[in-house]
Specification:
The complex is a heterodimer of chains A (611) and B (451). Chain A is α+β, with helices and mostly antiparallel strands and 611 residues long. Chain A contains 22 helices and 22 strands. In chain A, the strands form 5 sheets. In chain A, strands 1, 2, 6, 7, 8, 9 and 20 form a 7-stranded mixed sheet that branches. In chain A, strands 14-15-16-17-13-18 form a 6-stranded antiparallel sheet, with no helix packed on it. Chain A starts with a strand and ends with a helix. In chain B, strand 4 and strand 5 form a beta hairpin. The two termini of chain B are 45 Å apart. Helices cover 45% and strands 18% of the residues of chain B. By secondary structure, chain B is of the alpha/beta class. Chain B contains 14 helices and 13 strands. Classes of the chains: A alpha+beta (611), B alpha/beta (451).
Chain lengths: 611, 451
């Protein structure tokens, strides 16, 4: 039987990026999914982007990933968030046509050569020695691969809860879970946890009274996530609005009256929920003094009346859900099309992974997406990309590829996963990035495209275009430095640094011509206005990244190092970080322990040089 | 190992010479900023002594003359660029210089840190590794212990609520950034909160002044013309015979220093030589010292003899103590009063009548001294602050001021948040908390956000 280079299990947002990147790097890829009709599915809100997440999408795009292209091709609403809060945290957020997004991705995969797409449910990882060799399916088929990437989302041991009486096994509404694979992973020695998430009800748009809500119109300026999307593709795109309303005192009363019927409060759900994605009942309990909560009504597509009710994820019984919704202005007559639910699933603690997302225990076995305890399509896609690249490199014997915390949100995400000890579903936030000012959504191409080009995922044309953009901005900056503002005795460059001055103001004041697009203008402004801050950030990076350059020997036995605290010894032996920087971010490892390791490394180095 | 550290390399205390050592990549650059000589330190040869002056670059104030040695890495003890200052061995001066170097970017070295760097840079042989690990361990243990000492505890208990305030603020800024559709930010309220934190930090800096005051004590010379009973007064205040008391004028030729405590505040009493024109060389040195001790005084006790009329020399003393806080002690009330204008003396300051023979009035004198000390908070109220703390608090205030300026200029929140994060981290260096904020916890326990 044929041996594939890379087998990817699961065709969600992680699986797609993994399969495509490994394939684009020259690997033969087998992509297995439990259901071909839900490839690239968005079982929660069909929204992409937002602070941190939008940054991830741009970074994935700069490294040749697909999520940005697919979003641009299928969005039905896009706007800028945080436009007033600073260039570093400004991000796009889009609503996509859920069905179209799936179709886009399925079509892409089907028409990629050397990529085999197949419906199958994987039940077992096949391992020889400590190397992965393939997978086995529910129908007793064996597929062989040199590397395997597992991206099972919420399917591992998934169980849905709607009220205290309704609970059944499912990977998500309407789809069976994967029951056996967890045991296979457990047998391989992985520590498994159980996490929980959920989704709100979907309602029929025809039964919503939008006149009682505030409209959230899309951006009038054409926006695009991908550096490879032509402007013409998004200009004149038909867009829909989102709508804002608020819960009432009555909504609160209904929740409190029915709290005993919520599985989370009745104790049926034991999985760890996430604080940033609380159910509506949790919000009411934890913030008792808050009179009202925001509710956004968002379209799920153009060819459907289904609308997403953001802010009201709940696992209360269905009859309570409808009562809840109808207490909200504009939803008095609303009809539910699908109820909301909570879901529990198995995950693998990601401190068992290297920063390539390869497991430390089984060579060639990679994990990406929700199985690693994250939530969110963008987080999944980012991991899928990194796992796919490294699976390909593993097969091709190329050195591993990873990103540092100061290079990308992807670096922050994966470093957090492998060092921090994830105890609840993990979502990216800009506040998790300590070097946030250099990691802009806008400059992801400058940060990463050269890497993408060098590893072989970015084509010559895209790369050259990035260099051109960079050059245009730099030339304009030079011109501003040479130009003086006549009545002020400052250069145009320094004048632009003033917070209240925009580039367009400046151009007008000087009476000069400009050919810069609005995207380039915003990047130029970022460079000029943030220059001092970025310089300081770069100094900080220089100061703190030294530890990340110090690689710990692989055969190091932490128990034998005198002077380490017991806690540090245990954690270091368990996680076995690659660098001193990673070690410093482990819980229980103190600065004194790092000093001891520094001394140890010096001793080690001298011993090596002696022999 | 990328920052520059500073420490006093000679033992603390009065000595002929004190050596202050800077080590790290910025040491030459930092030294250049305070060192005035004809030569530019960037160009001077390694291991060669250079003469010059230490000057505060901000105030242009001359601190000391000094010999300086630049040792370029790797040819130095630590293997890094190192600068050594050879200054006069006075603790006050050394502290001042170290503080200045810290303000310019150096960090106070931890115990054993020069040695640690030397080892990591390959300057020490393997046999020292164990010793260095011991130092690191001792340091972390000592750090743990010192967290419980009263000194550290007091400051920490002041700093921690401020860190909590900053944490609240950070959580709010971050929630506003990461959940823009759900959390609104107001520049005005952020600005107010930052201002109030700055104010409280400034109050703590005030504590640094009083800490020094407590450590060195309130300087209180006892002055008067010869033989008015200065030494007797010192003795009776001390309750023991310390100064040599004789009826011959000019017995006290040198200053005698003793300290007493008034309600816990240390008062340094200085028995001075009586001021009069003198031909005696030894005595004249004593007189000069008297004059200089008046210059340094926080409070002066001026002793006047009631058994004799006022003399020219008394008025001379009035003149040189005029701009000091002072108490006039009318001594020898056990003898006949020959002083005509007792009432007039009250215009020069509070007057207390005492007798060092009978002890009469001494309690009243103590009481008056206490009154003059009003305004100096009692020791329980002063938060003790050392040089390192002071430098960190100043740095923190600077970051917050930058944030405040940013708020006023309506700079974007991502930049302001950066300053607030930094200021939080700086305070963390004082309390020794190395763990970073669990920002997720902070945001979600305070703000109701999510799908």
């Amino acid at each position: 039987m044929k041996t594939f280079d890379v087998i990817v299990v699961g065709a969600g947002h992680a699986g797609i990026e993994a399969a495509l990147s490994a394939n684009r790097l020259g690997c033969s890829v087998l992509l297995l999914t439990g259901n071909l009709d839900t490839i690239g599915w968005m079982p929660c809100n069909p929204a992409v982007g937002g602070p941190g997440k939008g940054h991830l999408v741009r970074e994935i795009d700069a490294l040749g990933g697909e999520i940005g292209r697919a979003t641009d091709a299928t969005y039905i609403h896009i706007r800028v968030l945080n436009s007033g809060k600073g260039i570093a945290v400004r991000a796009y957020r889009a609503q996509v046509e859920k069905k179209f997004y799936h179709i886009y991705m399925k079509e892409k995969l089907e028409n990629t050569s050397n990529l085999t797409l197949r419906q199958a449910q994987v039940t077992e990882v096949l391992v020889e020695g400590n190397r992965v060799i393939g997978v086995k399916t529910k129908t007793n088929q064996e597929f062989y691969g040199k590397a395997v990437v597992i991206t099972t989302g919420t399917f591992l041991g998934g169980r849905i809860f709607i009220g205290t009486e309704v609970s059944y096994p499912a990977g998500r509404a309407g789809e069976p879970p994967s029951e056996e694979l967890t045991q296979s992973l457990r047998n391989l020695g992985f520590r498994i946890g159980r996490f929980k998430t959920g989704t709100p009800p979907r309602v029929d748009g025809r039964t919503v009274d939008f006149s009682k809500m505030t409209e959230q119109p899309p951006s009038e300026v054409p926006l695009r996530f991908s550096y490879r999307t032509e402007l013409a593709e998004v200009v004149g795109r038909k867009q829909l609005s989102c709508w804002l309303t608020f819960t009432t005192e009555k909504t609160r009363e209904i929740v409190l009256k029915n709290l005993h019927r919520a599985p989370m409060y009745a104790g049926q759900i034991t999985g760890t929920g996430t604080r940033y994605c609380p159910s509506f009942e949790t919000k009411v309990v934890h913030f008792p003094h808050r009179e009202r909560h925001q509710v956004f009504i968002e379209p799920e597509g153009i060819h459907t009346n289904e609308m997403y009710v953001q802010g009201m994820y709940t696992s209360l019984p269905e009859e309570v859900q409808i009562e809840l919704l109808r207490s909200v202005p504009g939803l008095e007559e609303v009809e539910i099309m699908r109820p909301g639910y909570a879901i529990e699933y198995d995950m693998v603690y990601p401190d068992q992974l290297k920063e390539t997302l390869e497991t430390k225990k089984v060579a060639g076995l990679f994990l990406a997406g929700q199985i690693n305890g994250t939530s969110g399509y963008e987080e999944a896609a980012a991991q899928g990309l990194i796992a796919g690249i490294n699976a390909a490199f593993y097969v091709q014997n190329r050195p591993p590829f990873y990103l540092q915390r100061n290079e990308a949100y992807i670096g922050v995400l994966i470093d957090d996963l492998v060092t921090k000890g994830i105890v609840e579903p993990y979502r990216i936030l800009t506040s998790r990035a300590e070097y946030r000012l250099v990691l802009m959504q806008d400059n992801a191409d400058e940060r990463l495209m050269e890497k993408g080009y060098k590893i072989g995922l970015i084509d010559e044309k895209t790369y050259k275009e990035m260099l051109e953009r960079k050059e245009i901005i730099e030339e304009e900056i030079e011109r501003l430095k040479r130009t003086n503002i006549p009545d002020l005795k400052v250069s145009a460059y320094n004048y632009l640094k003033r917070p209240e001055v925009s580039y367009l103001d400046l151009v007008q004041k000087l009476g000069i011509e400009t050919t810069l697009s609005s995207e380039l203008i915003s990047r130029l402004e970022a460079k000029v206005k943030y220059e001092g801050y970025i310089k300081r950030e770069e100094e900080r990076i220089k100061r703190f990244s030294q530890l990340d350059d110090k690689v710990l020997p692989e055969d190091i036995d932490y128990s034998s190092i005198k002077g380490l605290s017991l806690e540090a010894r245990d954690r270091l032996n368990q996680v076995r970080p690659r660098t001193l920087g990673q070690a410093s971010r482990l819980q229980g490892v103190s600065p004194a322990d790092i000093d001891v390791l520094l001394v140890y490394l010096e001793l080690y180095k001298r011993e090596i040089s002696k022999t | 190992m990328d920052d520059t550290i500073v420490a006093l390399s000679t033992p603390y205390g009065e000595s002929g010479i004190g050596v202050i050592r800077l080590s790290g990549p910025a040491s030459i650059e930092i030294a250049q900023k305070v060192f005035k000589s004809k030569k530019n330190l960037r160009d001077v040869p390694s291991h060669k002594a250079i003469f010059g002056y230490i000057v505060n670059p901000k105030t242009e104030e001359l601190l000391d003359e000094c010999l300086l040695l630049v040792m370029r890495g790797p040819h130095s003890y630590t293997g890094e660029d190192t600068v050594e200052f050879y200054v006069h061995g006075s603790p006050v001066l050394e502290e001042l210089i170290i503080k200045l170097l810290m303000e310019l970017g150096a960090r106070l070295a931890l115990p054993g840190e020069f040695t640690k760097r030397a080892f990591l840079n390959g300057k020490l042989d393997l046999s020292r590794a164990e010793a260095i690990i011991d130092i690191i361990q001792a340091k972390s243990e000592a750090g743990l212990k010192s967290a419980f000492t009263q000194l550290q505890g007091r400051l920490s208990s002041e700093i921690k609520p401020l860190m909590e305030n900053l944490k609240d603020l950070i959580a709010e800024l971050e929630a506003g950034i990461d959940f823009p559709e759900e959390v609104e930010l107001s520049y005005e309220s952020i600005g107010e909160r930052i201002s109030s934190i700055i104010e409280r930090l400034n109050n703590l800096l005030g504590g640094a002044y009083f800490t020094r005051l407590y450590r060195k004590g309130i300087y209180c010379p006892i002055v008067g013309r010869p033989n008015v009973g200065k030494s007797s007064l010192l003795n009776i205040l001390l309750g023991e015979e310390r100064a040599i008391v004789t009826p011959i004028p000019g017995t006290t030729r040198d200053t005698i220093t003793e300290s007493i405590s008034i309600d816990g505040i240390p008062l340094i009493l200085i028995d001075t030589a009586g001021i009069r024109e003198t031909q005696d060389l030894v005595e004249s040195i004593g007189v000069n010292r008297t004059i200089s001790s008046i210059e340094n005084a926080d409070i002066v006790i001026w002793v006047v003899d009631v058994s004799e009329p006022l003399r020219e020399e008394d008025l001379e003393i009035e003149k040189i103590t005029r701009d000091k806080k002072r108490i006039i002690a009318l001594n020898k009330i056990d003898l006949a009063n020959r002083l005509l204008y007792v009432k007039d003396l009250e215009m020069y300051g509070p007057v207390v009548e005492v007798s060092c023979v009978t002890g009469e009035g001494i309690d009243r004198l103590r009481l008056k001294l206490k009154e003059l000390l009003v305004g100096i908070p009692s020791p329980e109220l002063v938060v003790p602050i050392n040089v390192r703390h002071e430098a960190l608090i100043k740095r923190c205030i600077n970051r917050l001021l930058t944030a405040l300026e940013g708020i006023n200029a309506k700079l974007p929140i991502d930049i302001i948040a950066g300053e607030v994060w930094e200021s939080y981290n700086i305070l963390g260096e004082i309390t020794g908390e190395t763990t970073s904020i669990d920002i997720v916890e902070e945001i979600f326990s305070r703000f109701c956000v999510g799908k």
